[in-house]
Amino acid sequence: PGTDMILLEVNNRIIEETLTLKFEGAAAGNKPEAVEVTFADFDGVLYHISNPNGDKTKVMVSISLKFYKELQEHGADEVLKKVYGSYLINPESGYNVSLLYDLENLPADKDAIVHQAGMLKRNCFASVFEKYFKFQEEGKEGEKRAVIHYRDDETMYVEAKKDRVTVVFSTVFKDDDDVVIGKVFMQEFKEGRRASHTAPQVLFSHREPPLELKDTDAAVGDNIGYITF
Question: pTM above 0.85?
Answer without folding.
Answer: no
